[in-house]
């Protein structure tokens, strides 16, 4: 499993554009999972937004947790 912790980044631009670039930059195999950690403050999006992004990059959300920070487990499809 790949772990990508982006909770403490400082992106000066649009956080959605940053997220799209991040998902596009991943080079993962079919049998790899990626756990992504994001700050709720910097990425104030609901699960539906992440699901739409997944469709663009052939990913599937396996687990989504948004208690304090956001943690998402992705799998390549």
TrEMBL record:
This is Uncharacterized protein. It comes from Picrophilus torridus (strain ATCC 700027 / DSM 9790 / JCM 10055 / NBRC 100828 / KAW 2/3).
């Amino acid at each position: 499993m790949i772990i990508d912790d982006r909770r403490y980044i400082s992106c000066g631009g649009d956080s959605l554009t940053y997220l799209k670039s991040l998902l596009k930059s991943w080079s993962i195999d079919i049998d790899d999972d990626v756990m992504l950690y994001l700050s709720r403050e910097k990425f104030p999006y609901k699960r539906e937004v992440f699901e739409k992004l997944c469709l663009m990059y052939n990913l599937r959300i396996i687990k989504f947790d948004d208690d304090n920070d956001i943690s998402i487990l992705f799998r390549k499809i």
